[in-house]
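step: validate -> pass
step: tokenize input -> pass
step: predict -> running
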Amino acid sequence: MKAFIFDLDGVIVDTAKYHYLAWKNLAKSLGFVFTEEHNELLKGVSRVRSLEILLEIGKVQLTEEQKQPLLLKKNEEYLEYVNKMTPNEILPGISDVLDYLDANNITYALGSASKNAPLILKKVGLLNRFTAIVDGNDVSKAKPDPEVFLIGAQKLQMKPENCIVVEDAIAGIEAANAANMVSIGIGDAELLKDATYILKDTTDFTIDFLKNLMN
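step: predict -> pass
step: emit ->
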């Protein structure tokens, strides 16, 4: 038997655009420009580390005390976008994949750095579909550390080598590989070259691909 562990951003939904807008506005308030290229550096990274990277880009030095209100400000703006989400924001093909897994009694979990993962899943109508949810509240080490996926395997009562991780970030692929799991990378083939399988986007995550994978 196999089980799946899905990342959230860029795999189930695209909330990366909302993160980007919130970080961009925060950078603007600090007096520098934050670009989409810069935003790539934050993929799959915790909120605290994301702020550190952002401050490095802007060459801004702050104390830990000064960082806390910025983290709150960014998250509040991000949540304003999230609260307007609907099931229409589930990425193409993902609903079909989950339907196939359900029909074939294949369990799946969510493994995400986002502390807002349950809220996002609720907004898009998927909260009750996952056997287990591991989010930023459950882990002490961020990807590329494999902790999030190992906890996911534990919650699914599966051995790591029988788990298949679906990710769109380099850090996530590294974490899956470190956990001794099969990794499916969704996105840029060059960036995700260490994944076991690479798909251009979620439209390539087809039932035929799943059937071949399971066989």
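step: describe -> The domain at 3-14+86-214 is CATH 3.40.50.1000 (Rossmann fold).
step: cleanup -> pass
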